[in-house]
Design goal:
CATH class of the largest domain: Mainly Alpha
Strand content: 5-15%
Strand order of the largest sheet: 1-2-3-4-5
Bound molecules: zinc ion
Largest sheet: 5 strands, antiparallel
Shape: globular
CATH architecture of the largest domain: Orthogonal Bundle
Oligomer: single chain
Number of domains: 5
CATH topology of the largest domain: DNAb Helicase, Chain A
Radius of gyration: 31 Å
């Protein structure tokens, strides 16, 4: 168990707006901050942060809570791990619990970080001068090696396992961190005699490796870490930890394919670049990009594979409301060789000549099909319409159909008719409608006001004295009040952040919604009025119930019960009158 005092200190020293701003760009909006929600795709921000109340809430997907809850959602961590992240921001370390230091995930992070150090030291050895030379010849100098923590895995095939075992890491940890692999009689290093590129998470912690052959020997050019608790290929964009701030500043992110395609332009001053590390972008990667910018520039090799990857990425990006541009590189060049051969300025010029998705796809189709033939024209039009169908804006779609009509020499009405025929009426939009986290339950205004008094103000004593859980009708309000009263009875004060830690996710979301929704002033009269109203409501409900019970007792002829009930009815009535 982590001492409550530690949790309290971390929470009281943490500012939620600063924490969230460390992950996504936020903008001041009145007393609050606004942002594009990182948990669902959106074009206009419905994600609100209140520094004053130390909560966030998204009206789009109904996510909400305090700083800890944000980190839990964003980093997909447990409560303790989130607390640890917030504590380390403040230079605090989690008190050790029961002799076991750190969580399993932290052990994995530590093991991979130790492997990074080990590989870097190996590369620096005099005997590995040839590898250094190989890297230098490919434009990877000392500065790049340092920044990207590039290293070398030893050829022996067991040096890393031995080294990390000596440092106390278990084989289980080494296997889960994808550093060791079980081989018949024991464990061996997963990576042998390869140039090691650490893959970093958004907080610049290494979570995996890409490993490249540096000699002309048989075997795949690259192998990667096996996916595990820290690393999933679909979610990652290589180098984004270095380039995210530049992507925000430039309001655009350049997407390339490989490690060196990212590293070389970056080191030469094109800083808003990240690599997909695969042929096509994934939905998950697009969601990550959207946290930083709404504009993406795809940079692909001019070969067939590069072209079809670009086309797939275009459809995905269009569908998720990203503005997508594409650039085909000159024949025979990839971003790495291009920037090294032609220099930064030529590279930047190439980016300036980006085409929007429409022109890019149309030109590509026209280069392989003959628009002058009926067959060619039909295929081009069909290809374009299938991408236009992914657009979420009717207006945009209409404008592009008009443009297509002009380019293809087909009347607009015909294209629209064709469009309606080929595109199902209800297309699926994978990011537009997030699954509701909780069934929204309406809370009466009075209940909301009381909750605000309880969570924001210092009216706890009055509320505890005058109301009970039973006075609240909504299940969520009841849960909040029960938890708050429990804290109060234990003699603890309850800031909303403390309370949030005690609530289940659904209830925490309800709390953040109530708090962020309303900034109207709270005064004593309002509190009094609301307390009276809640009590009265309950009494009226009670009266109805007793009335029914009386009828039932009458019909059964139960005189004793009847007397009891009439007595109760009188009591309730006088209570209602006295308010
Ligand atoms: Zn959201």
């Amino acid at each position: 168990m982590i001492p409550q005092s530690f949790i309290d200190e971390v929470q009281s020293r943490t500012d939620i707006a600063e924490v969230i701003a460390g992950y996504i760009p936020i903008k001041k909006a009145g007393r609050n901050f606004r942002a594009l929600c990182p948990f669902h795709g959106e074009k206009t921000p419905s994600f609100m942060i209140s520094s004053q109340k130390q909560i966030f809430h998204c009206f789009g997907c109904n996510a909400g809570g305090g700083a800890i809850q944000f980190v839990m959602l964003y980093e997909k961590t447990t409560f303790v791990e989130a607390l640890e992240i917030l504590a380390s921001r403040l230079g605090m370390t989690l008190p050790k619990t029961g002799g076991e230091s750190g969580t399993f995930k932290n052990k994995l992070f530590e093991a991979i970080a130790a492997a990074v150090d080990f590989f870097q030291a190996e590369l620096a050895l005099e005997k590995n001068r040839a590898v250094k030379k190989y890297l230098n010849e490919r434009g990877i100098g000392d500065e790049t090696i340092k920044q990207f923590k590039i290293g070398l895995s030893p050829a022996s095939g067991e040096a890393l396992v031995r080294h990390l075992r000596e440092k106390g890491y278990t084989l289980d940890i080494l296997e889960k961190a994808s550093l060791a692999i079980s081989r018949g009689d024991g464990y061996r290093d997963l990576f042998r005699n390869r140039v090691m590129f650490p893959i970093f998470d958004i907080r610049s912690r290494p979570v995996a490796f890409g490993a490249r052959l540096w000699q002309n020997i048989d075997g795949p050019k690259y192998i990667n870490s096996i996916e595990g608790p820290l690393y999933s290929k679909r979610d990652h964009l290589y180098g984004l930890n270095f380039s995210k701030d530049e992507a925000v500043k430039a309001d655009a992110l350049v997407i390339v394919e490989g490690y060196l395609d990212m590293i070389s332009p970056f080191m030469r001053g094109i800083r808003n670049v990240a690599a997909s590390l695969g042929t096509a972008l994934t939905e998950e990667q697009i969601r990550v990009i959207r946290r930083y910018t709404g504009n993406v520039i795809l940079l692909f090799d001019p070969d067939k594979a590069g072209q079809s990857a670009a086309l797939r990425a275009i459809d995905l990006a269009v569908e998720s409301d990203l503005k997508v541009f594409a650039v085909l590189l000159p024949e025979g060049l990839d971003p790495d060789t291009m920037v090294r051969k032609e220099g930064k300025d030529e590279f930047a010029k190439l980016l300036e000549h980006k085409k929007d998705f429409f022109d890019f796809k149309l030109d590509l189709l026209k280069s392989s099909l003959d628009i002058k033939t009926i067959d060619g024209k039909t295929k081009i039009v069909a290809g374009m319409l299938s991408t236009l169908a992914k657009l979420n804006s009717e207006v945009e779609r209409y404008e592009y159909i008009k443009k297509l009509a002009g380019c293809a020499g087909v009347r607009e009405e015909i294209l629209i008719a064709e469009f309606k025929k080929t595109v199902p009426a209800q297309k699926t939009r994978f990011m537009k409608t997030p699954a509701p986290r909780a069934v929204r339950q309406e809370m009466a205004i009075t209940e909301k006001v009381i909750l605000r008094f309880l969570l924001e103000g210092h009216a706890a004593a009055v509320i505890r004295k005058n109301l009970s859980e039973a006075d609240f009708e909504s299940v969520l309000a009841k849960k909040v009040v029960t938890a708050a009263f429990k804290l109060y009875d234990e003699g603890k004060d309850f800031s909303s952040t403390k309370l949030l830690n005690l609530l289940d996710e659904e209830t925490a979301v309800a709390v953040s919604a109530v708090l962020i929704d309303d900034d109207s002033p709270l005064d004593k009269d309002l509190l009094k009025g609301c307390i009276l109203k809640l009590r009265k409501n309950r009494l009226i409900g009670l009266k109805e119930k007793v009335k029914n019970d009386i009828k039932e007792a009458e019909s059964r002829g139960d005189q004793a019960r009847l007397k009891e009930l009439i007595n109760e009815y009188g009591k309730i009535n006088s209570e209602v009158r006295n308010g």
